[in-house]
Amino acid sequence: MVRCRSILGALLSCLSLISGSRAADHLDSPTVIADPRADIGDLYAWMSADTSRLNLALTIVGHGFAPDIAYEFHIGSGTRFGETARSISVYCRFPKPDAGDCRLGGDDRAQGRAGDAAGIVSGHERFRMFAGLRDDPFFNNVRGTRDAYRVAQAALGAGATVDKDRCPAFDGATVAAIRERWRQVDGGPATNFLKGWTPASIVLSIDVAAINAGGPILSVWAATRGADRQIDRMGRPLTGNALLGTLDPADQANVMKEAYNAADPAHWPDFAAEIASNLGLYDGFDGVCGNALLTGGAAPAGRRYDRLAAFLADDRLWINSASGQCRHFAAVELTALAGRADRAGDCGGRSPGQDAVDIYRSLLSTGLETGIDDGVDGDEKPPSETVFPFLAPP
Q1: How confident is the model at residue 255 (pLDDT cuts 50, 70, 90)?
Q2: Which letter, b or e, does each residue of 141-165 get, where b requires 16 or more Cβ atoms within 10 Å of its Cβ?
Q3: S-S: 38 plus which of 33, 231, 254, 277, CB 3.0-4.6 Å?
Q4: pLDDT 10s digits, 8-56
Q5: pLDDT given at position 171
Q6: Which residues pair with residue 112 across a beta bridge?
Q7: What is the rounded CA–CA span in Å between residue 245 and residue 18?
Q8: Cα separation, 193 vs 59, whole angstroms
Q9: Coil, strand or helix at 365
Q10: Sorting pLDDT into bands at 50, 70 and 90, what band is 287?
C-alpha cells in the first residue's frame, strides 16, 4: 500500500479527507453512493425497560428499499463480552415498495404492509416489524467538525510535531481553538447537518427469549447484501467512515472501504493494522498523546493503538440483555475492557437518543466519554426508546 512520504504529509492528507465525512456510516464507499438504498446510515440496539425485548433500528440513506437487496441483522449471544456461543439472524426483503418480508431464523416471519406505525407482528409473535420513512435520529455538527479539522490542519502545516504513532503534539491554543470551532458553525450556534432527513428505516422489537440461547450478552451488527456479495455493514458509528484508508489517496481509500464493507466476521481482524495507523490524529485532539481508550501502559513505538484497533475492528454493538437501563453507549465494552464498574448495570448498545458520536470521538481522544463535543446534543424530533416504532415520523 502506498503511503505519504512523511507522517506530517500523511496527517495533512488525513485531515483533508476526513473533513468530508458526513455522518456515522453514510456514503462511505462508491458502491453505496451509486445506490443509497444499499447504504446503511446507522444501527441502533437497546433493551426494553422490562428486559423482555431487544429493540433494533436500521436507517438506510436512500429514501426506499431495493427489491434485489437483503437487509440483515446478525445477533450473537454468549455469557460474556467478546464471545458468542449461538447466533441467529433476521433477513428482510422488500419485493414491492409497500411490502415487507422479514424472517427471524428459519421459523418465524412477518410480512405485509409494513409502513403503519403499529408495525406487523410475526406469525409466532416473536417479533414486531416496521419499515418505512422516519425522521433520522442521528445528529451531528458536520460543518463544525470540518472547521475543527481545519484548525488542526493549519497547526500541522505550521510545524506541530507528530510522533511515530502519528499523534500530533498540539499546543494549548490549538486545542482550545479545535474545541471552540467544533461546537459552532461560522461563529454561531452549532447545527445538526441531518436536520429533517428522512431515511428508509427498518425497526424490529424481538422477544429476547428467541435470540439469547447462548447467554445474556448479545452482539449485533447489520449488513446489506446483493445477489453476489455483501455491500455494506455496520456495528458502531464512524469506524468505517473515519478510520479506513484515511492516509491514502481517495482511490486507494475507496478500495479499502469496499473491502471492509464486503468482509465477513472471520476477516474483520485483517483491518486492525489499518485502523491502528489512523488513530493517532484523534488521540492528539486533546493535546495529549497516549491517553485514548486502551492505550495505557508501555507499548513499543508505532504500536500504541494496537489494542484499541483490535477492539474497533470487531465492529459489533454489545448489549447486556439482563438490564433494562440503557443510558450509556458502549457500556458493556467499557465494563469489560476499561474496568468501568459504574457501567456494569447498563445494557449498553446504542439507543437512538444517545450522543454516541461525541462519546465515540471522546474515547478515541481522551479515553473518557467526554472531551469532544460538537455542540449538538439531540435531534429536533426526539426519538422514543419505549414506544414502537421508536423513531419519530418524518
Answers
A1: confident
A2: bbbbbbbbbbbbbebbeeebebbeb
A3: 231
A4: 555 555 555 454 444 454 445 566 677 889 999 999 999 999 999 999 9
A5: 97
A6: 100
A7: 10
A8: 16
A9: helix
A10: very high
Considering only CA atoms, which of 76, 74, 69 is closest in space to residue 101? Answer: 69
Is there a contact between 315 and 236 (Cβ–Cβ < 8 Å)? yes
- What is the per-residue DSSP string for 246-297? TTS-HHHHHHHHHHHHH--GGGGGGGHHHHHTTSHHHHGGGT-SS-STT--S
The predicted structure's pLDDT at residue 15: 58
pLDDT of residue 296: 83
Please give the single-letter amino acid code of residue 229.
R
Q: Mind listing the domains of the chain with CATH numbers? A: 35-137+196-236 (2.60.40)
* 295/303 Cα distance (integer angstroms): 9
Q: Please report, for residues 17, 385, 388, the alpha-carbon distance to residue 121 in angstroms, rounded to integers and kept in the order given.
A: 44, 19, 12
173: part of which helix (H) or strand (E)?
helix 172-182
* Side-chain-facing half-sphere of 212: CA atoms under 13 Å: 20
C-alpha distance across the termini of the chain, in Å = 44
Q: Which of 30-34, 128-132, 154-158, 268-272 has the lowest mean pLDDT?
A: 30-34
Q: In degrees, to the nearest 5, what angle opens at C-alpha 317 toward C-alphas 190 and 32?
A: 65
**Dist CA 5 CA 376 (whole Å):** 37
Backbone torsions φ then ψ of 354, nearest 5 degrees: -75, 150
pLDDT of residue 17: 47
Give the three cell numbers for residue 332.
Answer: 458493556
Cell of 64: 426506499
pTM, to two decimals: 0.93
pLDDT for 360-383, tens place per residue?
Answer: 999 999 999 999 999 999 999 999
